[in-house]
Each structure stands twice: as C-alpha cells, then as structure tokens.
Design a protein that fits this description.
Elements (H helix, E strand, L loop, with lengths): L10 H18 L4 H13 L4 H14 L6 H18 L4 H11 L1
Length: 103
C-alpha cells in the first residue's frame, strides 16, 4: 500500500490500525460509528488502495441501512465522503448505487 506521506506515519503503524479495525468489527459482530470514523481516516493514508475499498465497503453499505442508529448512519455518510474525496472516480459506481438506496 502506498502512503500519501510516509514521514508522518509508518506503514507498520497503519497496517496495525487497519487490522485492529477489521478485528474490532469481527469481534463485536457489527459495524459501529467509531470504527467507521477510523476507516474514513485511513482512506486519507491509503490513497487509491483498492484493498481498503474491498475490505470496508460492505461495512459502509450495511451501516447506511441502520437508520435507527443515527450515530452509525452519520458515520457511514462521513465515511462515504472520505472515500469519495480520496478515491474519486474509482467509487462512481458504488456511490451511485448507494444514492439510489438512500432516496
């Protein structure tokens, strides 16, 4: 994975954080707002990394169906914005599909 600014944070630290979030979601067996905020932040460091999209997009989609949990829903929207800002056209199809479900 390519970092945007390797001087700021080492790849080992980011990889550890990445694995912790995956473990967190697996352990609690759901997606929560705290994890989604971390995922959105990771997208700034793992710029254009398809693995991040592949690993986390299913969690974002699921979170956008959780209308009754407003914190998770809002965190998912924030995460979509972070991904869109960092992955641009790579997400066109995914974001378009999400928007049809949100109307």
């Amino acid at each position: 994975m390519a970092l945007r600014n390797e001087a700021d944070v080492s790849m080992d630290i980011l990889s550890t954080i990445y694995q912790l979030v995956i473990k967190h979601f697996s352990t609690i067996n759901k997606v929560d707002s705290d994890g989604l905020y971390v995922v959105g932040t990771l997208s700034f460091y793992f710029k254009n990394e398809p693995r991040l999209i592949d690993d986390f997009w299913k969690f974002i989609e699921h979170s956008l169906t959780q209308y009754s949990d407003s914190n998770t829903f809002k965190a998912a929207l924030s995460c979509v914005c972070d991904f869109a800002a960092n992955y641009g056209p790579t997400l066109n199809d995914k974001v378009h599909l999400l928007m049809t479900h949100l109307h």
